[in-house]
Amino acid sequence: MGSRCGRVCWKWGSPLRRLTGFSRLLSTAVLAPQICVVGSGPAGFYTAQHLLKHHRLARVDIYEKLPVPFGLVRFGVAPDHPEVKNVINTFTQTAHSDRCSYYGNITIGKDVTVKELQRAYHAVVLSYGAEDNRILGIPGENLSGVYSARAFVGWYNGLPENRDLKPDLSSETAVVLGQGNVALDVARVLLSPLDILGKTDITEGSLAAIACSKIKRVWLVGRRGPLQVAFTIKELREMINLPGTRPLLDPADFTGLGDVVKDVPRPRKRLTELMVKSALEKPGEKEASRWAAATKEWGLKFQRSPLEVLPAADGKQARGIRMAVTRLEGSGESARAVPTGEVEELECGLILSSIGYRSLPLDSLIPFDPKLGIIPNSLGRVQGTPGLYCSGWVKRGPTGVIITTMNDSFDTAQSVLEDLQSGVLDLSNTKEGFKSVRSILHSRGVHPVTFSDWETIDAAEVARGKLAGKPREKIVDPQEMLQLISH
Amino acid sequence: RWLLAAWRPGGGSGAARRPGRFFGVSARARLSSEDKVTVHFINRDGDKLTAEGKVGDSLLDVVVDKNLDIDGFGACEGTLACSTCHLIFEDHIFEKLDAITDEEMDMLDLAYGLTETSRLGCQICLKKFMNNMTVRVPEAVADARQSIDMSKNS
Q1: Beta strand pairing status for A377-378 and B48-54?
Q2: Do A44 and A104 touch, CB atoms closer than 8 A?
Q3: Which long-range contacts (CB under 8 A, 24 or more apart) does A435-442 make?
Q4: Is A291 known as a binding-site position?
Q5: Domain 2Fe-2S ferredoxin-type, which positions (chain B) (predicted)?
Q6: Quick check: A309 and A291 in contact, CB under 8 A?
Q7: Does A182 show up as a binding residue in the annotation?
Q8: Is B81 within 8 Å of A421 when comparing Cβ atoms?
């Protein structure tokens, strides 16, 4: 991007070229698209990045509900996966670009409406992700000891709304419902050696709670079979190699599976082969002694569908989970789990449901499909609402890793660029951008947090972390953040 | 930007970028032209981008150092935590590449448009035999629309 900044080139027609330098600048300002992005996670930043790179004049403002940016990169990626967070560097570069501004501490739908944003900007891109989770819909779901994996992840990652979760870690066995990467993340955080966790950016409070945890065993329970697990091989490998732990894999679940996957695409094949190997093959000497010495264990249970969380004698705590034994109809990704009539109970004091995140509607005027949990759209253009776009999980659903969101965001940006070029977005309509939003916010007593403010918070977190031998000590109280930047 | 990437907290399970690069300024001056390798990148628009690196540079290094126009390349900065540096090699080059590790394959498995001659650019270091090779940046999205670029003079 840097190499392009110095060049002056005029795209729109010859009349402009006859103007003097000063008037040219004025005309350019009139024709610069004002674009707003709602949400500062990977979707928001990658959409902004693509727009800024592929349009010489576009101004992009990124809005965020929290004071701090980066969404799930900060609050979702596990503390022991710092490399995944390297994308923050490229996002920071984008935020520093002179045609980009970040405005935190602004809740769209409350502090300013989408309609008001549409009046201020030529295009509004909704990239606000999935802040909720799917619910089990079973009795006992609200007993103490039952939490969504989303809230648990938010808790150990310092998401302000989950800081008071106080999960009950006093029992020996935890059950995680779901077999995706989030399920593996929470299992790994529950069982990781403390000296490893202690060097990450996990919050101080959650680390202290985990240090007192009695949990020795974590089951990851899925409705279907080993061929339908949603986690990926790198994360599985990490779990198998987790120091101080041993895997509990029932050979009966894996016998013959090696042959079944001989001809399936490589990713599924290798993933299955790794499970089969761990379950059926005799471990090597080093591994065998590690497993023998392990004080904690984790395992996979298949073809079990949750029916009811069972209460303890006091009627308030979870003491176990009753599950239906299923059989599979069909095969591969589309296999369905059908109850057999058999039922099983598993004793546990902590249940984490990891069955998917879920988006929420932002504003009653924006189309939203509650069944799919997405904003209805075509190639990122919100249905029936010109000038409104969406990218990321709120557009496609809450699955995928950062590259998935990156590609998707570039795709939406592409639609915006097409509409700018074709005139669907009418640039002769002058838009004020943040100027008009600022006065709205001011009149409502809302103070935006700038990127420079975030850098002050960032520096404070890093400094505090240094004292504890961690990359950062996250501030979990938004008020404390605001005080730090004297708002 | 790679100065920011220099400090990597915690362990991480991927291969880190080679630390020798950060002493690169004076080292570069000392290297002779015999260590230069020319690589042609075909980006997603079909444009050919030609760049020069030195023996030992990874293909990610080349893309970053020469600021090549490839959207979203190298998101995790060479730590085997993504697949955005996925590149497709010519058969005769692919055969001579160093064997792939499990760690690289684990991430490559998640890449879009995987082919028989795919590798992750951050793991492939330039060697003399690669001089003038052509690598292709694979399609990133299912949608094959003509990409719009309003950043250049039309």
Answers
A1: unpaired
A2: no
A3: A435/A120, A436/A116, A436/A119, A436/A120, A437/A61, A437/A103, A437/A112, A437/A116, A437/A117, A437/A120, A440/A112, A440/A116, A441/A106, A441/A111, A441/A112
A4: no
A5: 37-141
A6: no
A7: yes
A8: no
Residue pair A176/A220 in contact (Cβ under 8 Å)? The answer is yes
DSSP SS3 for B142: coil
pLDDT averaged over every residue in chain A: 93
Q: Which two tokens stand for residue B143?
A: 């949608």
Question: What token pair was written down for A8?
Answer: 């002056």
pLDDT at A188 over 50: yes
| Interface mutation vs chain A, best among B148, B149, B152, B153, most A CBs within 10 Å | B148
Provide the residue type at A187 as one letter: A
Q: Is A271 helix (H, G, I), strand (E, B) or coil?
A: helix
Angle of helix A402-422 versus helix A42-54 axis, rounded to 10: 40
Q: For residue B8, which phi and psi values (nearest 5 degrees)?
A: -115, 105
**What angle separates helix A87-96 from helix A42-54, to the nearest 10 degrees?**
50
- Strand A132-133, strand A318-329: pairing: unpaired
The interface predicted TM-score of the complex, written ipTM, equals 0.88
CA-CA distance, B106 to A247, in Å (whole number)? 20
For A141-158, what is each residue's pLDDT tens digit?
A: 999 999 999 999 999 999
Task: Tell me which residue has tokens 């000296």.
Answer: A195
Task: Please state, in angstroms and rounded to a whole number, the distance separating the CA atoms of residues A174 and A297.
Answer: 11
DSSP letters of A85-127?
A: GGHHHHHHHHHHSTTEEEEBS--BTTTB-HHHHHHH-SEEEE-
Output the six-digit token pair for B19: 């630390």
Diameter of chain A by CA atoms?
Answer: 85
Query: In sequence order, what are the beta bridge partners of A146?
Result: A351
Q: Do A83 and B11 touch (CB under 8 A)?
A: no
pTM of the model: 0.89
- Please list the residues that pair with A144 across neighbouring strands: A317
Shortest CA distance to A300 belongs to which of A239, A216, A351? Answer: A239
Q: Which helix (H) or strand (E) holds A407?
A: helix A402-422
Asked whether the beta carbons of residue A46 and residue B72 sit closer than 8 angstroms, the reply is yes
Question: Is the distance from CB of B112 to CB of B138 less than 8 angstroms?
Answer: yes
Find the helix or strand (DSSP H, E) in which A64 lies.
none
CB A160 within 8 A of CB A477: yes
In angstroms, the separation between the Cα of residue B55 and the nearest Cα of chain A is: 26
Write out the two tokens for A15: 């009349």
